[in-house]
Amino acid sequence: MEAAIVVLVIGIVAVFAAPRIVDGMREYRLNMAMRQMADLVQKVKMQSVSDNRRATLTIDTANRRIGMITYDASNNVLSTQYAPLPPGVSFAMPANNVAPMTGAPIANAISFPAPGGSTTVFQEDFNSKGFPVVNAGAINALYLTNGRTYRALTLNSVAGLRTFTWQGSSWRDVRR
Predict the structure, then answer these.
(1) CATH number for the domain that contains residue 101
(2) pLDDT score of 40 more than 70
(3) pLDDT tens, 6-17?
(4) Would you call 119 helix, strand, or coil by DSSP?
């Protein structure tokens, strides 16, 4: 009888705790993906400076992965390294999206250039000084989701990164 009561109490606790644990894991994976993306941008910047040549940030939405392309002195691809996004995380933006900051694009989940007109691969080149190869003042953005909440990462023309959290109708700068 006592064992049955213990099992019943454990079952009741599990019923109430399970949804919170699942939601917590979703948030953790989304936050991890955002950190992974920001870290990769920094890695590509540093690689371009270290090698004193171009390096490319690449995003493959069809296969849910992000990576870096390095080049030799003749501008031939030396290596391509990819890392998968965490389970349950994909590139998407909220339906009623507004720009997380002035000038940030909101037309697509990823605003980096698409090589050869691709609809699933996007790339941003960084020059030998570690700056994105874009027009002065340009801002690129990418949006991630776990199906419930959203995050945004913006990259400006001087390689400045900012991350944002969707608050239902507007973005909140994570640094503030």
Answers:
(1) 3.55.40.10
(2) yes
(3) 777 777 766 666
(4) coil
CA 167 from chain centre, in angstroms, equals 17
Domain that holds residue 80: 2-173
Where does residue 109 rank: exposed (0-12), middle (13-18), buried (19+ CB within 10 A)?
A: buried
pLDDT higher than 90, residue 149: yes
CA 152 to chain centre: 7
152-166 pLDDT per residue, tens = 999 999 989 999 999
Q: Across the chain, which distance is largest between two alpha carbons, in Å?
A: 78
**Residue 71, beta-bridge partner list:** 77
Which is nearest to 116 in space by CA: 173, 54, 58?
58
Q: Are 115 and 124 within 8 A, CB to CB? A: no
Predicted TM-score of the model (pTM): 0.85
Q: How many domains does the chain have?
A: 1
- Burial zone of 87 (CB within 10 Å; 0-12 exposed, 13-18 middle, 19+ buried): exposed
Contact 95, 130 (CB under 8 A): no
Tell me the HSE value of 141 on the side-chain side, using a 13 A CA sphere. 25
Q: Quote the CA–CA distance of 88 and 15 in Å, as a whole number.
A: 22
